[in-house]
Design goal:
This protein has about 450 residues and is an alpha/beta fold. It has 17 helices and 14 strands. Helix 4 (about 100-105) links the parallel strand 3 and strand 4. Helix 2 (about 40-50) packs parallel to helix 10 (about 270-285) and helix 8 runs parallel beside helix 9 (about 235-245).
Length: about 450
């Protein structure tokens, strides 16, 4: 009976909270780019982190490597490779990262991926670039990636006094073209009183000369640069490094993987946030939620991020109006460096304070008790002194520890002279022995 109830409880818990799967699940993560590219690596890490509690999810990752090669011929060869590779394989769900992967997955949804549910992420210019085919309509959802160029330009104007010129650097990759579409939609908002210069066709040498000639009231908005105008490929680190080395003006960006490489900051798209959001959607689908009920997340989870070193280099202040933000590379405070020690000191101090409060309270209580007892003794002593009959009291060793005035007068002594004495000190020996014996018997055989 108990076992049946326990299994019922586990079943209900699983149904309500999705804590486990009935069967192992296989998920394919299809990246547009290559392993080692920080954006892709951060997405992978975020998805793996969300899947980590579920030991029955097996995650397989493919890299299309389209940052370095994306010709039509290459994509067709890649399709043949994947078709052969997945000939007898169907995944429970396919995660696709960035535009090229989504375009590929939609095109070969039935042929290669056998109509498995698709969750996309990191997609730029989704409305313009993609139309989901009718046969895939109820099997595709995901997270849109919107670079917030408008908010970043506003931020640049807030942070840089007398800013009158922004050089925007981009390339002509698939993602860059999608970002250019977004840029074209908002440029008119700024061009009245701000000179915005856009370049995407310069070789690296010409670009460095242009950057080096920028005047004081200028700034750079670095979007993407993987191939220069001469077709030479650069890593994301190297391209920014080339620009940073010759720049005497602040550089802003819209992707968090450039932070720490020379970018001041911006309203940035986060690979980790994209991967986390998409993985959570995937988990719900794997746990039984119909994909048709999972609406596309159209609001990109962007946030304001800054590099402390670059803020300090150009003496820039973060505007209060932007609200929540994060600053990377901040120097460690004493607390950050010695957190365990700080907490041990804090806890020890709290313990000592509590102990002191307890001891002080105890002393106060004891003093109050002593004062009350002293008052009571004075009252009893005064009361005894009014009694005309001799009264005394002894300790177990037979010594007088107190008496009234009548007893002291009987002996012709003061009360102080009586205290500490025994019957042998105050009375004849024979009488003293008799009364000492009676006291001994009284102690030995007390009355019931």
């Amino acid at each position: 009976m108990f076992k049946a109830a326990l299994w019922a409880l586990l079943f209900v818990s699983s149904a309500l909270f999705g804590v486990s799967f009935n069967e192992p699940k296989e998920v394919l993560l299809l990246h547009s780019y290559h392993q080692g590219y920080k954006w892709s690596d951060d997405i992978t890490d975020a998805i793996a982190l969300e899947f980590a509690p579920y030991d029955n999810i097996e995650l397989t990752t493919f890299y299309m490597d389209t940052k370095r090669i994306n010709s039509d011929e290459y994509i067709k060869l890649l399709a043949k490779l994947y078709e052969k590779k997945l000939e007898f394989k169907k995944y429970d769900l396919v995660l696709v990262a960035d535009n090229m992967a989504l375009d590929f997955a939609l095109k070969y949804h039935e042929k290669i991926f056998k109509s498995s549910p698709i969750v996309f992420l990191g997609i730029n210019d989704f409305k313009t670039q993609f139309t989901i085919p009718a046969h895939s309509k109820d099997k595709v959802t995901g997270v849109v990636e919107e670079v917030d160029i408008k908010s970043t330009i506003k931020l640049m104007r807030q942070m840089i006094l007398n800013l009158d010129h922004i050089l925007i650097i981009n390339d002509r990759s698939e993602t860059a073209r999608a970002v250019k579409n977004e840029l074209d939609r908002i440029l008119s908002d700024f061009q009245k009183d701000l000179y915005i210069e856009y370049v995407d066709d310069l070789d690296i040498g010409s670009l460095k000369k242009r950057v080096g000639s920028l005047k004081k009231n200028s700034a750079i908005l670095f979007l993407l640069l993987f191939k220069d105008g001469a077709g030479k490929y650069y890593t994301y680190k190297k391209s920014l490094q080339e620009v940073y080395e010759v720049s005497n003006v602040p550089i802003f960006g819209v992707w968090d993987f450039y932070l720490g490489l020379g970018v001041v900051g911006g309203k940035m798209t986060s690979a980790h946030a994209q991967g986390e959001a998409a993985a959570k959607m995937a988990l719900k689908i794997l746990q039984g939620t119909p994909i048709s009920q999972m609406q596309i997340i159209k609001k990109s989870p962007n946030r304001y991020l800054f590099d402390h070193n670059e803020l300090k280099r150009f003496n820039l202040k973060i505007p209060v109006e932007i609200g929540y933000h994060e600053v990377r590379n901040k120097p460690l405070t004493f607390y950050d460096q010695y957190r365990p020690l700080a907490w041990s000191i804090i806890l020890s101090s709290i313990f000592v304070i509590v102990l002191l409060i307890f001891l002080i309270a105890n002393i106060i209580k004891r003093r109050r008790s002593e004062k009350a007892l002293k008052s009571q003794l004075i009252f009893i002593t005064t009361l005894l002194d009014t009694i005309k009959n001799p009264i005394f009291y002894k300790d177990v060793k037979g010594r007088y520890i107190g008496c009234n005035l009548a007893f002291a007068k009987l002996l012709g002594l003061s009360k102080d002279d009586v205290i500490g004495k025994t019957v042998y000190d105050l009375f004849p020996t024979s009488w003293a022995k008799e009364h000492a014996f009676k006291d001994e018997m009284l102690l030995k055989y007390p009355p019931l």
